[in-house]
Amino acid sequence: MSSASTDAAVLAKAVVRLDPISLRTKRFAALTTMILPLLGTAAAAYFLLTGRFTAVDLWLFAGMYFVHMFGITVGFHRYLAHKAFRTGPVFEAIMMITGSMGAQGPLMWWVTTHRRHHRFSDREGDPHSPNLHGRTLQQRLHGLWYAHMPWMLSDENSRWSVFAPDVLRDRRLMYFHRTYPVWVVSGVILPGLIGWTVEGSARSALTGVVFGGLARIFLANQAAWMVGSVCHAIGGRPFANEDRSANNWPVALLTFGEGLQNNHHAFPGSYRHGVTWLEPDLSGWILAGLGKVGVVRELREPSREQIQTKRERALSTKKAE
Ligand SMILES: [Zn+2]
Ligand SMILES: [Zn+2]
């Protein structure tokens, strides 16, 4: 079978069209986790411009940004979606809770969407490709915007039994899937509680929620969604993947390494997104450290030879063009 007809056969089984009630629920949840954090960001800007904030608020923002990005990149992405390493139940729980605090959807939705993205990268069936909307400048800009946010409102989901039967069978993981809203709300309230404990006033509880909860969700997710939009359009392509994935360093800095999409699509099972240690991949560095102290184990990464072979293939493709 040709790869196009294989794609079509997989695609026919891979996508679920949502009934009106499920679609309404999905859109309500997605819009709530976009609009409330946006309003919180406006409030944070107001507090910043009028001087109504303290150093604690800024620390809460930074600390919760770290927790959020760690949970999504190390937990949901490298551990759950790609199985790039193994660990025990306590660290797994920490990753699933912090990943859920990222408010990017319950973990089953995240994993199935992401695995479908890899299966169909930049071809029909990719849930968030910026490259399927036409070639004119206007169409490309529309594609970039669609791949950034509106794709989350689409009337289809990825089928769980096709993309994540392993997660579906895992009762521990499914517990964190079902309790997703609890963790999102906890991630908003927690910085408020810390602010209140440290500074002892109701106002510091409020600014804690605004900076460490809502503004953090909005800004961290804007960075994270650039991985799906910008990093499939703009950046370097050291490996000749069959998609438009690109290494974008500014996005990689903001997303703890996820912006190195070209590397990641070349070696999706690797716990590291940097092929060299100099590429900005904070999550890869953290995992290497956690591997040394035994918190995680069986970290997968490509061998030097595998990297070299793919590099050479990319060079010969460029020469042929
Ligand atoms: Zn990608
Ligand atoms: Zn991936």
Commentary on this structure:
This protein is mostly helical and 321 residues long. It has one domain (17-320). It is 65% helix and 3% strand. It contains 15 helices and 4 strands. It has helices spanning 3-14, 20-49, 55-81, 89-101, 107-119, 137-148, 160-163, 165-168, 171-178, 180-199, 202-228, 249-254, 261-266, 282-292, 304-320, and strands at 15-17, 86-87, 156-158, 296-297. The chain has a two-stranded antiparallel ribbon. It has a two-stranded antiparallel ribbon with strand order 2-4. Helix 2 (20-49) packs across helix 11 and helix 4 (89-101) crosses helix 10. The two termini are 27 Å apart. The model has no long low-confidence stretch (mean pLDDT 96). It binds zinc ion (2 copies). One zinc ion binds at residues 117, 232, 245, 261, 265.
Short description:
The protein has helices at 3-14, 20-49, 55-81, 89-101, 107-119, 137-148, 160-163, 165-168, 171-178, 180-199, 202-228, 249-254, 261-266, 282-292, 304-320; strands at residues 15-17, 86-87, 156-158, 296-297.
Helices and strands in order, then pairings?
Layout: H1 3-14, E1 15-17, H2 20-49, H3 55-81, E2 86-87, H4 89-101, H5 107-119, H6 137-148, E3 156-158, H7 160-163, H8 165-168, H9 171-178, H10 180-199, H11 202-228, H12 249-254, H13 261-266, H14 282-292, E4 296-297, H15 304-320
Antiparallel strand pairs: 1-3, 2-4
Helix pairs in contact: 2-11, 3-4, 3-5, 3-10, 3-11, 4-9, 4-10, 10-11
Bound molecules: zinc ion (2 copies).
The site of one zinc ion has 7 residues, from α3 and α5.
Strand content: under 5%
List the ligand species. Answer: zinc ion
Terminal CA distance reads 27 Å
User: How many domain modules?
Assistant: 1
Structural class: mainly alpha
So what's the overall shape?
globular
Looking across the biggest beta sheet, what order are the strands in? 1-3
The average pLDDT score comes to: 96
Q: Give the radius of gyration.
A: 20 Å
Quaternary status of these chains? Answer: single chain
The helix/strand order is HEHHEHHHEHHHHHHHHEH
User: Strand count, sense and closure of the main sheet?
Assistant: 2 strands, antiparallel
Helix content: 55-70%
Contiguous helical run count:
15
Regions with little confidence, pLDDT below 50 for 5+ residues:
none
Total DSSP E strands: 4
